[in-house]
Amino acid sequence: MGSLTAKPNVLFIAADDLSCALGCYGDPIAKTPNLDRLAATGTCFLNAYNQLPLCNPTRASVMTGLRPDTIKVYDLDRHFRDEVPEAVTLSQQFMKHGWWAGRVGKIYHYNVPASIGTDGFDDPPSWQNTINPKGRDKTDEHLVFNAEPHRKISAALSWLAADGRDEEQTDGMIATEAIKLMEEKRENLSLSQPAFFVHIHLS
């Protein structure tokens, strides 16, 4: 946080399909030292529920603060602004109160891995800057083993123990870009825009 203001900088991290199998949630097997350290120094939600067991409705609900039955998002193919065009998202709320808001990686739904490196199902009014890294996991997509190619969603549930360094993968690139962006913003804090809200997404 800059010395110019009491407004804190905000880093919002979203992760795909992350269960509560984390050390900070008391899991006896999971070894998650970095997330545990982050939880110890930030805010760890101990009583949180998702709105609907599907990513697009849940993501839209988290970002708008509205229930899926209000925004009419129940599947992967609908944008919340189709039903509620004037909705104010979490990042827009921050911007309204003087924060700068940027996104690195996705927050709203897109097809993985097909849409890696694109805006996907994004919401442009929610951000002042967006960065969409595309790592070797996108170019190595053909190596992913899909046990049930006849099922539409099974490709998203497939996995690959990828070669290469973390920095070559999309998640590693997202982390690198987010660090760079936050360092730039921290150095350029001013009285007119004293803090930032940065959202990053990790798969």
Can you describe this structure?
It is a single chain. The chain has 203 residues and is of the alpha/beta class. The protein has 2 domains: 10-48 and 90-202, no CATH class; 49-87, no CATH class. The protein has 7 helices and 4 strands, in the order βααααββαααβ. The chain has helices at residues 33-41, 55-64, 68-71, 90-96, 136-139, 154-157, 170-187; strands spanning 10-15, 99-104, 129-131, 195-202. The chain has a 4-stranded parallel sheet, with helices on both faces. It is globular, with a radius of gyration of 18 Å.
Query: What portion of the residues fall into strands of 2 or more residues?
Result: 5-15%
In what order do the strands lie side by side in the largest sheet?
Answer: 1-4-2-3
Structural class: alpha/beta
Please state the average pLDDT score. Answer: 85
Radius of gyration: 18 Å
What's the total number of strands? Answer: 4
Along the chain, the helix and strand elements come as EHHHHEEHHHE
Note poorly predicted spans: none
DSSP helical segment count? 7
User: How many separate domains?
Assistant: 2
| Terminus-to-terminus distance | 27 Å
The major beta sheet can be summarized as: 4 strands, parallel
Residue share in helices?
25-40%
Characterize the overall form. globular
Brief overview, please?
It is built from 7 helices and 4 strands, in the order βααααββαααβ. The protein has helices at 33-41, 55-64, 68-71, 90-96, 136-139, 154-157, 170-187; strands at 10-15, 99-104, 129-131, 195-202.
